[in-house]
Hints:
The protein is mainly alpha-helical. Helix content is 82%, strand content 0%. The protein contains six helices and no strands. Helix 2 (13-21) crosses helix 3, helix 3 (23-39) crosses helix 6 and helix 4 crosses helix 6. The radius of gyration is 13 Å and the shape is globular.
Amino acid sequence: MKDPKEQAAQMNEEKKDEIMSNFQTFKDYLGDKVNKGEKLGLGEEGLTKGAKRVADYLAEYEEPRNREEKVLNELWNAADNNEREHIAHALVKMADQTN
């Protein structure tokens, strides 16, 4: 799995804004990534680990662009490492149900 920071650097700002400005679009994007990971044979733990890396990147480098992302950001920043793994697991489940 590519490093989230590296992927974001390769993505133009317009595409990033398109994904991040609407929560449904963000969920769809995550759902597509989860689907690709499943096709590559990643299990639930691998997908959760990837989601945690992405969430860590978003919390550190990206400003939330809507209310839902703001709530997720605040939850992420308030959580300890164990709680973050549970949040990442829930994000994977949510994204998987999007598809």
